[in-house]
Amino acid sequence: MGILRLAVSTILIACLFKSLPAYSQPSPLITLNKKNLTLQEALDEIHKQTGYTYAGESNFTQYSHRVSISAHKAPLIVVLDSIFRDQPVTFEIVGMGIIINRRPVRDQNVHGWVFNDKREPLEGVTILVRGEPMTAAVSRVTGEFSIHMHFADDRLVISSVGYEMQEVEPREGEDAVVYLKERIGELSDVVVVHNGYTEKTLKASTGSSDVVGTTLISRRVSTSLLDRIDGVTSSVLFNKNIQANTNQSSITIRGRSTIFANPNPLIVIDNFPYYGDIGNINPEDVESVTILKDAASAAIWGAFSGNGVIVITTKKGRINQSPKWSFTTSQTIGEKPDLYYQPALSSSDYIDIQQFLYRNKFYAGVLSPFQHGAVTPAVEIFDATSKGVLSSGDSAAQINALKGQDVRRDLNKYFYQRSLNSQYVLNVSGGGPKNTFYLSGGFDENRSDLVRNLYKRVTLNGSNTYLVLQDKMEVTTGVSFANSKFYNNNTTSSNLFYPYASFADANGNPLPINVGFKNSYIDTAGGGQLLDWHYVPLNELKNSDNIANLADYRINVGLKYMVRKGLDLRVYYQYGWGDSISSNYQNIQTFYTRNLINSYAQFNNGLFFYPVPQGGILDEVRNTYTANSARLQVNYQDSLFRHGLLNAAGGAELRDIEGESRRTRLYGYEKGVGISAPVNYDTLWPQYPSFGTAKIPYYNVNGSTAERYISYYINGDYTYLGRYTVSASARWDESNLFGVKTNQRGVPLWSVG
């Protein structure tokens, strides 16, 4: 203490010069490497090297902490900052002296809450008082905590696995509200279940559900969201082979619950049901997919959840995150399908079987003069040989030539190609202390392994969140747009072809195959007045013009007002619009059009006239929907009976879905000028060359639908000690079902888990 007494007079003299002008002087450098020193011992070492004396609280050595110093030519101020960090005293340099003051004491209990950047409470967060490792607290399931602080200038150190650590200086008399930012690149053991109304951890959920996060969604490369989640969830069947007109669904969750009604699970995107094509959703814009499987998890959606619910949550920005740009691209090349993988009857064996059948009169009926149906070239050769039209030598030569042909070679050459799938996505996300934003744009182009089949998609997605009214109100807006185009021009079925069919000659010129009528009949039918009746596969592929165009957009607006701690009021609205147009133009060069024109051709006075106009045929199918959805909801979340957490939500929602459908066919249509010819649909026309009659096909159909729903619901769960959870849900759905009595239009549903 001798040095301390001696230093007092020195410090007092130095204080006299404090008011004099200060001139810049080099900071002394310190080299010191010692451990477990008292604060006084450390200051003595500094005095020896620099000449700086110290004075202040006489008993500071009794309550200060030991320190360790490792410095090499370090400035004095840096060393002092190091040894005084987390000490109950502070320092101030005055002249050549170091003044030591005790930190102001203010005992207080600090109360507060910890949330993530989505304003969700965090459980298990560690709260420490800086410099006092023995003073700690842990947040409860509500995110609430309470801790004692001794000094007025104490700071709280708040940390949790998967989140960035924060230091907070609480204000006297105010609750501390802390938002932790998720640490990018670290795994979190907290899985959040989104059911479209509320969010809860998987641990607190009593129902059966699967959550597919960004990591799993990004594991597979595909433009389809369903392909991305195929095989990564249990009890979900993805049906690849759907038979037409069988009321099947491409997704089945824990079996099918409806027979004649809609077999599809309910698709929910950002709080509301989605009525468009799920193929419009860009997987790169999806944050998570939650699959609700049983009644306890899906009952909140009432009658709509009979076949399960798939809840899609899109990506959003984060609070206090600088703009983060991301560009993703992929190129996936696929080989042609192996047409030889599946064993098939060879051309030689196929022709031998046909020869056996011919000898046993199997083709006698179709080869009669009164029948004109097509037969294969081998059968025509056998028939011509038996009638003496073709010599046995020529017959054998032609049959041997056919046996050497394989239709798979031509299919592989003209109808198949290597597939190429290209994806491009650019997005930016971020946010400030009171707002978040997310914006993305995507372009996809999938070239099929079938020649002239192509898929293109453009997507735009944006969302913003703002905190207003002193952070009591959260305003959310979102816009999503998608446009897809399908080119489905390669629809020729291999079932039309016999194993030895050939599509082109040695020079690559298209060849006809035997389809429809026998070649002997086609060459003479109508005396040359009918259209060419041959079926030429390569020409069909060239002239096909079958395009489907899908457009879809959604606009979302949400308000969330915090009435008081744990109680908030939410209002959501969504406008959705979708339009799909399928256009199949079959010009006069296609077999379908030529066959239909010839079939209705009428012979009169040595001439033909055509009830089906000579020209192309345009088939269009258009489906449009407009959806308006609104919801008013009250959420309550707070501790109950000290060790429990009550989480409840209730409200009402309205939905109005208007749909229009139109199917049209135009005959004699010329695509370049957009004109068509009138047709007599009422007359029964004799069919050529058969003796039957038929009306010209009529496909002009218009329809509209109007679905209106009103629902009331309540859903809640109570968790005790973070381990025991009980949940309950109740809902009442009403709709404008036609023909049902008013008191029978409502359906009550409930569940307990």
Describe this structure in words.
With 753 residues, the protein is α+β, with helices and mostly antiparallel strands. Helix content is 16%, strand content 44%. It is built from 14 helices and 38 strands. Strands 22, 23, 24, 25, 26, 27, 28, 31, 32, 33, 36, 37 and 38 form a 13-stranded antiparallel β-sheet that branches. Strands 15-20-21-18-19 form a five-stranded mixed β-sheet. A hairpin with a 5-residue loop joins strand 24 (435-447) and strand 25 (453-468). Helix 8 crosses helix 9 and helix 8 (347-359) crosses helix 10 (392-403). The longest helix is centred in the N-terminal third of the chain and has 15 residues, at 2-16. The protein starts with a helix and ends with a strand. Residues 1-24 and 185-189 have low confidence and may be disordered.
Question: Helical element count?
Answer: 14
Rounded to an integer, what's the Rg over CA atoms?
40 Å
- The portion of residues assigned to helices is 10-25%
Q: Provide mean pLDDT, rounded.
A: 84
**What structural category characterises the helix and strand content?**
alpha+beta
Number of strands: 38
- Termini Cα gap: 71 Å
Give the low-confidence spans.
1-24, 185-189
Beta-strand portion reads: 35-45%
Tell the overall outline: elongated
Largest sheet: 13 strands, antiparallel
